Amino acid sequence: MLAAMFAILDSEWGIIAVLIAVVVLFGSTQLPKFARSLGSAHSEFKKGLSEGGKDGDAKAAQADQKATAADPAESTKPE
What is the pLDDT of residues 12-29, one digit of tens each? Predict the structure, then answer.
């Protein structure tokens, strides 16, 4: 059933019809605003991922240091 819903996208004319329907529904003035907000959301998401990775690495390093300081015998155990 899902394949039948998206069967219109198999041809070029189907894609063109969907694009025309989107322009008619949302209007040509709203589409640039939507694209702009989508782009800013994408850049914010990537920025959050990069900051999260940095924060996660720093927090992991701090946790390792605290664990080593709390139990120095554990840090000498072979892995």
Answer: 888 898 889 988 998 888
